[in-house]
Amino acid sequence: MSLLSVDVSQNGGIKNVDSSSSVFEMEEFDFSRLPDRPRNLNMERQRSFDERSLAEIPMGLSPHPPSRADNFNRVLDHLDGIYSPGRKSGFNTPRSHFGYEPHPMTAEAWETLRRSLVYFRGRPVGTIAALDNSEEKLNYDQVFVRDFVPSALAFLMNGEPEIVKNFLLKTLRLQSWEKKIDRFQLGEGVMPASFKVLHDPVRNTETLIADFGESAIGRVAPVDSGFWWIILLRAYTKSTGDLSLAEMPECQKGMRLILSLCLSEGFDTFPTLLCADGCCMIDRRMGVYGYPIEIQALFFMALRCALVLLKQDTQGKEFIERIIKRLHALSYHMRSYFWLDLKQLNDIYRYKTEEYSHTAVNKFNVMPDSLPEWVFDFMPMHGGYFIGNVGPSKMDFRWFCLGNCIAILSSLATPEQATAIMDLIESRWEELVGDMPLKVCYPAIENHEWRIVTGCDPKNTRWSYHNGGSWPVLLWLLTAACIKTGRPQIARRAIELAEARLSKDGWPEYYDGKLGRYIGKQARRYQTWSISGYLVAKMMLEDPSHLGMVAHEEDKQLKPVLKRSSSWTV
């Protein structure tokens, strides 16, 4: 575990005081790589309970596994002396812990974030999507699971975990509701996309109303909500040291229900999850149906979180075995078939087609003529990324920011691949960052392709919204990925771009244009996750130990085969 013993003296130097670490352990993060780092930052490192190698959890589980009490007593011993509540950042603190003066935007951001809080029976349970009263509310007055994640991280980093705990428990309760669209009943484990609090002034009562996709545009259930819930539960546990929430029978059951939906056997020949369009952050028709990178990366990260949150009781052991098998298969598949760099692009360019048998090189029968022209110029000499989608005769070569950043944080990307992704971002700064970070995907689709793929969606015109728009919320993901790869200067540069305009423009939801120069044509102002994403990015740069809430170290047992096998076995 990393125990920080630091304090800020009047001259900004660091010395001698006990501080609360927001992580149990960050073994893989070498802070000596961080430029402009605080002086005299000393860390003792040892392995945390949740960063064990998969090899240490036997596939068949040992004949005499340790008791649940033994496991958690060992965990509690490990936590002894680490957690110290009350460390705060941002608007409540006159100086940052490492001597950096807070930016003037920080106070405004905290004030606006607190105004977005939603209360249910006197307790805060989340934050609404946007505070913009100048536009029709639609569903922007609701608490979205995915939108609340950066808000939750900001509150955890600021020493306010109770809000996050309330949110986790309330959404867990909503999971148990009966979920129907027309006459069809959704799976028991589906988490809501969003919820809202209805106030009845006559009866003086409050009730929760949840949306599981039955009210969403396109009527698509949110595949990502369950993954974000598990990821946030782990972040809460890492930040607070409080294992009691994850140990609750209700939380254990909630995780198992989510995992049952994802690990069920069917007709799949791939370990990836088959999804409909509009099932994640890109919640409109944008051609991401199939096996989108965002869902696969979140799936991988949620599996790694669940692996250490599940109890090793009778029910938990079964899921742990299934998770380990899936992680091995999924990491191999993603690192082998979704990864694209200059060499792999050249290999695809030279593919033969119509190969039959297990020795086929072009396993998905991708037509080389389907390679888009832009990708040849986009791919740098040094760099690479996980492409958007891979399926039968289909490769979506678009860059998707969220999926690639989550791949880095979860260690789905190997260290070499993580470095290559950062190289790509630096090499293609104008395309992927431009004047306002960050492109949700690149490039935009337009003309005839736009008509076919989006169904002539007027909100997703070229370089707008999800079709190549720039989303400030992605700052926190970029910052976390930059810190994990030892390149915080990239994040600092992106944050400085955002600080030049974000507050002046009223914290828009997204920006339009090839360089992200224009406030989005339908963007809500005072978008909560634009605000919280900025705060999380700033707090992570201020105190990189916060990264442990959302990052996993590489597991050596998931090392990929360096050379592609000619057989299909994984």
UniProtKB/TrEMBL annotation:
Signal sequence interval, chain numbering: none
SUPFAM superfamilies referenced in this protein's UniProt entry, alphabetically: Six-hairpin glycosidases
First-tier enzyme category under EC: hydrolase
EC nos: 3.2.1.26
InterPro entries to which the protein is assigned, alphabetical: 6-hairpin_glycosidase_sf, 6hp_glycosidase-like_sf, Glyco_hydro_100
A Pfam family hit: Glyco_hydro_100
Keyword Nucleotide-binding listed: no
Biological role: Invertase that cleaves sucrose into glucose and fructose.
Family (UniProt): Belongs to the glycosyl hydrolase 100 family.
Protein name per Swiss-Prot or TrEMBL: Alkaline/neutral invertase
